[in-house]
Amino acid sequence: EGDAGKARLQLRLFRLAIRLIFRLLFRVRIVGLENVPRTPVVVCANHLGWTDPFLILLFLPVEPRIYILGEREVKEISGFRTLMINWMQVMVALDRDKPREALRIMQGVLERGGSLLLFPEGHLGTTEGNLLELQHGAAHLSVTAGVPLLPVGLTGTSALWIGRRLIVRIGKPIAPSSFEGESRGRVRSMTKMLDSAMRSLLPGDRQRGGMRLLRKWLTNLF
């Protein structure tokens, strides 16, 4: 794609339809939308379940378009997943054994005007309101490409049921130009600041009691 940041009409309509379904199933709340720049960013979120990427893709601004990084076999887990990923054209397939090629592909997306979604913990989290140790990849990409990191905190996504409250909290961008020194030191400093910013967006919201309809089915849907 020449301009990776633009969203075609079919994608906009599809996005609206899926967003409506999310609104019907869950109580979605977005905090800090005004912090999202109109230029490419590396979106950095914690990861607890399958709704995480959808919340970012559906409820952050449609442009610049946001792309997800993933290994090629990830989208083959189910027919439904393959269909969704192919239709939205949001996945940037990477080979974990070729890090230089992966970095080049990611930089290419950002240079063509798109944004990227990364889960810098590197693994699926296990506890609401908690954050695993962050890897340095997001900060390294930010320093190399010269685009800011956008910290995001997601709560409510580890276990799902009808009416579950899902909250997306968006922090202020972290610009690589704010850090001085050699590249490795800047990456470490950025990762430390990103960790602090993401933790501040994870207050560990309490859920009210009551019926938890379709919990098992919705939690393992995708």
Summed up:
By secondary structure, the protein is α/β, with parallel strands linked by helices. It has helices at 9-25, 51-59, 79-88, 99-111, 137-145, 183-200, 215-219; strands spanning 27-31, 42-45, 66-71, 91-94, 115-118, 149-155, 165-170. The model has no long low-confidence stretch (mean pLDDT 87).
What this model shows, in words?
The chain is an alpha/beta fold and 222 residues long. 36% of the residues lie in helices and 16% in strands. It is built from 7 helices and 7 strands; from the N terminus they run H-E-E-H-E-H-E-H-E-H-E-E-H-H. It has a 7-stranded mixed beta sheet with strand order 1-7-6-2-5-3-4, sandwiched between helices. Helix 3 (79-88) links the parallel strand 3 and strand 4 (91-94). It is globular.
What labels describe this entry?
about 220 residues, alpha/beta, seven-stranded mixed sheet, 7 helices, 7 strands, about 35% helix
Topology of helices and strands:
Layout: H1 9-25, E1 27-31, E2 42-45, H2 51-59, E3 66-71, H3 79-88, E4 91-94, H4 99-111, E5 115-118, H5 137-145, E6 149-155, E7 165-170, H6 183-200, H7 215-219
Parallel strand pairs: 1-7, 2-5, 2-6, 3-4, 3-5
Antiparallel strand pairs: 6-7
Helix pairs in contact: 5-6
How many β-strand runs?
7
* Secondary-structure element series: HEEHEHEHEHEEHH
The residue ranges in which pLDDT falls below 50 over 5 or more consecutive positions are none
Percent of residues in helical segments? 25-40%
Give me the secondary-structure category: alpha/beta
Strand line-up in the sheet with most strands: 1-7-6-2-5-3-4
Our measurement of the CA-to-CA distance between the termini, rounded to an integer number of angstroms, reads 28 Å
Shape field: globular
Largest sheet: 7 strands, mixed
